[in-house]
Design a protein that fits this description.
about 220 residues; mainly alpha; 9 helices; membrane; transmembrane; DUF3159 domain-containing protein
Length: about 220
């Protein structure tokens, strides 16, 4: 056995470190969305609206929504989640309910949530077309990257790739919602609504891990 082979570092350590980083990102994403209880609380108004509508009709669905929304708000406040997030939940539920009430169709409750991913898709794709990947302003700060990140090929590549992942996420989200909306599948729309936030946060967490690794590689080269 040569000295070079004897002193070679073990190969498994980086793999375990990488797995730990991504596991931590997944846990952080789940915690950021309020954990399983927070996710359930956020889904309560929509689930109540859809369930009661399928049983008793639209009028009773609005009553169920009016009762479930303050309960969800109270749960989130009791769990000391950010007040802004809880208020946003109230506003979103109110706006979606107003659209459904004006149209007289329960499906319209999901009209805005169906359209929004398409808006985000256009914005994100546009940022790539002008070579200003949208994830860079957020990820670079959280990853501790330099302000002149455009000068570093590794960082440009990571931010471009993660922005493409965001494009794929918004694209798939929009297509699935649109298909379910056109098919009048309210239960599927509810599932997609519940899953969107934690899935998006998980993508952001994994992207931050990748960006931090790129920042570390840039720092090692500069040093």
């Amino acid at each position: 056995m040569t000295d070079e082979t004897a002193t070679a570092p073990p190969r498994k350590a980086p793999d375990k470190e990488e797995q730990a980083s991504f596991a931590a990102a997944a846990r952080q994403a789940l915690e950021s969305s309020g954990g399983w209880v927070g996710i359930a609380a956020a889904a309560l108004p929509t689930a109540a609206f859809v369930a009661v509508n399928s049983i008793s009709g639209l009028d009773w669905a609005f009553i169920a929504l009016a009762g479930a929304t303050p309960v969800a708000f109270g749960i989130r406040i009791a769990r000391r989640e950010p007040v802004r997030a809880a208020v946003v939940g109230l506003v979103v539920a109110a706006v979606c309910a107003a659209v459904a009430a004006l149209s007289g169709d329960a499906r319209a409750f999901f009209l805005i949530p169906t359209v929004l991913p398409a808006v985000f898709l256009v914005i994100t794709l546009g940022s790539l077309l002008v070579r200003r990947p949208l994830t860079a302003p957020v990820l670079n700060r959280m990853a501790g990257g330099p302000r002149d990140w455009r000068r570093h090929a590794a960082l440009r590549r990571i931010y471009t790739i993660t922005t493409w992942f965001a494009v794929a996420f918004f694209g798939v989200n929009f297509v699935l919602r649109l298909v379910a909306f056109l098919a009048d599948q309210l239960a599927i729309l509810t599932v997609l609504e519940v899953a969107a936030a934690p899935a998006g946060l998980a993508l952001a967490g994994f992207s931050i891990v990748a960006a931090r690794r790129a920042v570390a590689s840039v720092a090692s080269v500069e040093s």
